[in-house]
Amino acid sequence: MTTATTTTFPTAGTALEGDLVLPAGAHGVVVFAHGSGSTRHSPRNRSVAAELNKRALGTLLVDLLTREEEVRDARARDLRFDIGLLADRLIGLVDWLGRQSLTRSLPVGLFGASTGAAAALVAAAARTAEVHAVVARGGRPDLAGTALPRVEAPTLLIVGERDLPIVELNEQARNTMTVEAELRIVPGATHLFEEPGTLGVVAEEAGTWFAAHLR
Question: What are 162-173's pLDDT values in tens digits?
């Protein structure tokens, strides 16, 4: 039986709205860090989360900004690039999962998109014992800065073939990292993976990666 909860999650001195789904027999849980200007309702992240749930992996999709902050960010477009803020909130969510009876025994993975990928990598570097795998979709790992070499979790970088600047940034990040890091380039895909079939490739790749490393 799958358990689904929509609530607020305390983290880093605030409370964030989110959705926690735990399939029966879950052997891990993945926290999602959405990208620039997105929310937990993003159909792309929801599609990936559904694939993970089919593989008996729990998912936690949280809006990393409060409603007031989202209003500000829609105007100023600054908080989505505040990697330190986003990473602190991700770290708080990882810590929260470690305190709950239903999730404290489950290894944690992080799935980040766009700027959320940088936040996920910074959080993974800060919680090396708790975070067991990272997947980045169309990510900006360069924004993780000096945290990149300190990531110990196996990391999968997924980039669209036609998203050329991001391909280069991810290649550089892979070469900087000292842990198992692989780059998957999805043929024909652009940054948002809106081309037919491309998002399905992302979900399949992410599901396989997390299923292998969250045990």
Answer: 999 999 999 999
